[in-house]
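Typical record was shown:
=====
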Amino acid sequence: MKSVLAGMTLFVLASASCGAYAQGAGDPAKGHQFVQQICSECHSVEKGQRPSPNGLAPNFETVAKTPGMTAIALTATLRTPHRTMPNVIIADDDLRNVVAYVLSLQ
């Protein structure tokens, strides 16, 4: 899983900027509420909470602490389909909030 995150980070860093995040920073509290409702079935979403309910799903603190993880990298990762993750479509405002929450776990 670390190699997937590292690969995505490299891909994002080599890519053009991501317009979805360019509109401004999100609200970590709203992002926390969103991930509790939508993501916590598979992912551990709280700081210090390990492991994830789904052993294949990384916990959000690990994602946040991945070297090179930025708002742009995380946004691109969440906008890119994954073989092991359902195709969840997140509205732009919710996405900014989720990104702000996850990065708050660094």
